[in-house]
Design goal:
Blueprint: E1 2-4, H1 10-19, H2 32-40, E2 44-51, E3 54-66, E4 69-79, H3 88-103, H4 117-126
Helix pairs in contact: 3-4
The structure holds coenzyme A (COA).
Length: about 140
Amino acid sequence: MIEIARAANPELLEALNRLIPQLSSSAEALTAEALEAIVDSPSCTLFIARHEGHIVGTLTLVCFAIPTGTRAWIEDVVVDDAARGAGIGDALVATALDHARQSGTRNVDLTSRSSRVAAHRLYERAGFQIRETNVYRFSFES
Ligand SMILES: CC(C)(COP(=O)(O)OP(=O)(O)OC[C@H]1O[C@@H](n2cnc3c(N)ncnc32)[C@H](O)[C@@H]1OP(=O)(O)O)[C@@H](O)C(=O)NCCC(=O)NCCS
């Protein structure tokens, strides 16, 4: 059910442009070039979930080396509204954690704003714990 996206093909591009608006109302449409860069990136692993052959969910795992070790982040987790509550989010997270463990990272981080109740339940059930730290953002947009 869960696979790693290996090719930036039209099916994947259509699916992501259907799923991303269900995650973020401000994200711009993904272009074929941007998708190709993600799929080809050695630090990004784009997981997709299929149900009856159709792409119904996605998660991106980013693993990168820094002086203190290998770090991993989970980003852009979304399951199609019509396919929610069937364990697909759970399967995406579990697969990403397996992959991250194999990359040698000790921790996997993510952020999730407080209104995302279903996501919090999913992450906590998967074993994530809230970490007390400040999350800062510098924005280039006014
Ligand atoms: C979060 C999300 C990925 C979960 O996907 P999913 O396939 O439905 O996940 P699962 O079926 O594995 O599990 C969902 C859990 O959330 C629970 N849930 C669903 N809606 C809920 C709600 N409104 N309030 C509380 N819990 C809720 C489910 O009951 C289930 O937990 P349980 O099995 O312990 O009862 C999906 O809801 C989604 O795409 N949401 C919009 C985007 C988003 O918020 N992404 C996360 C960004 S941090």
